[in-house]
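Run log, item B.
One chain of 211 residues. Sequence copied directly from the ordering sheet:
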Amino acid sequence: MHMTTITFVRHGHVYNPHNFFYGRLPGYPLSDEGRRQAQAAAETLRAESLAAVYSSPQVRAQQTAQIILASRPPTLFEISDLLDEVFTPFDGRPVSEVIARDWDLYSHVGPPYEQPIDVLNRILEFTMEARAKHTGQHVLAVTHGDCIVFMLLWAAGVPVTPQNKKDLRNWGLPIQHPAPASITTFVYRTDASDEAPTYTYAEPLQSLSLA
């Protein structure tokens, strides 16, 4: 079986002058700093041969993806709702309210909003679809912080809970949370649906091996 690689890029820093928790709200493009971060990610990924690039529907993710695509040969590009930001009741609230919850978007939050396992399940659905469609190839997906966090926890065999996501260093990972425009790569070596991939984490211009 050929090795299949799925790289997740977190979108770059966002222009948010009023300091709202933006979540799935429309708008909220990259800031100038976010564009610089995305360009650094593009440079880091330039030598990689990508079969496809996928993006969350959010503007900030699509802009990050387009910056990466701009320096590459023509590459398949698609939007995937499976890569979307977490669905929470906090969209449009002051960021200070979320900080007061220690960035916990899940505790004491009921349907129809997402819990960590809901986020993980759609990310796993994306990976299964990508592995089936691009077997033996390398694909890239631009998504959001918690989507990457829960995938990392799952791959590391750590229960996916609001408490366990607070600081990934507690689980032997060298980061607290994925940085803007960071690059997290998962490698699958079989076609087993339950395979836990190996993974690496990199910030543009600096790589940290996690596995």
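Observations after the first pass:
- The two ends are 21 Å apart (CA to CA).
- Helices lie at 32-45, 59-70, 95-100, 116-133, 145-155.
Flagged for discussion on Thursday.
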